[in-house]
Amino acid sequence: xxxxxxxxxxxxxxxxxxxxxxxxxxxxxxxxxxxxxxxxxxxxxxxxxxxxxxxxxxxxxxxxxxxxxxxxxxxxxxxxxxxxxxxxxxxxxxxxxxxxxxxxxxxxxxxxxxxxxxxxxxxxxxxxxxxxxxxxxxxxxxxxxxxxxxxxxxxxxxxxxxxxxxxxxxxxxxxxxxxxxxxxxxxxxxxxxxxxxxxxxxxxxxxxxxxxxxxxxxxxxxxxxxxxxxxxxxxxxxxxxxxxxxxxxxxxxxxxxxxxxxxxxxxxxxxxxxxxxxxxxxxxxxxxxxxxxxxxxxxxxxxxxxxxxxxxxxxxxxxxxxxxxxxxxxxxxxxxxxxxxxxxxxxxxxxxxxxxxxxxxxxxxxxxxxxxxxxxxxxx
Length: 380
Prior knowledge:
By secondary structure, the protein is of the alpha+beta class. The chain has 15 helices and four strands. It has a four-stranded mixed beta sheet. The radius of gyration is 25 Å and the shape is globular.
């Protein structure tokens, strides 16, 4: 599906959701069930063929051996179908944080989970990116039985205060929260699962399996993504409401502003300055995250921060991401649309979530990430 066709479908379904919200939700639910119904139909057809072949083998005289031989390809086809949908999706990459590595962080996670009645987080992974996410890995493929991974960026931990990190975690957990729409949470999981399965359809499957499954996934995953986009967009507002429920509206808004400022500071200031040093020295920085923390504490200046917020304020909500634009998210949190709210003050290094929530083991794993980054960039 082309991006233009995807956006056209999304706009059509958004209008449908605006006209008849309850009817739209029912149709999204029915479309979600269509994927499972198709799988059940294909398996039922194959099972019927196998049963018919077995019956003919007993009834038809002299042809039992020939009919019995048909059971092998039919059985292989049934196994290929089940295997394709039962595929074990890979776990996300990262260094696992254990409760002993960061007792204060895990206490924060427990508070958020209890407040939102969110499901258990099975693994907390430290990643190098400026990002946070909850990734669900279905242990039974499209059939579910989720294992939940919380991904926390080392740079994010250095850029946010514990209170701001709490709102970010609450937003992510809000997608799975029991305090709000369980239906939206289910659709969120279905979207993730089908999209990941569509990416991993094996190109070397048998021709018939590719026709039965591959072609269906190529159509179904993006079409369902477009159909459920309006609901997924609404779920982002629900997740922001969960963040406000846990930490308060001001804290949730402040975290959004901090994410904008810190992201721009890293992308346009810190990382380009690191790249420029490649022309001045043969050795990469020894502890990149310590330098990153110092940079976050000193940059940007108030005028630069206001400029970045003003630019982010003018960006409209689009269809490239289910997340609404900054202006719309702040409006939903109770801030008027007239002008951006004031930039949060600079953050001291010692006030960061990394400094206050990570124990000795957690800091050692941040150092391990820094060492891996240094090794990976040394040649360049």
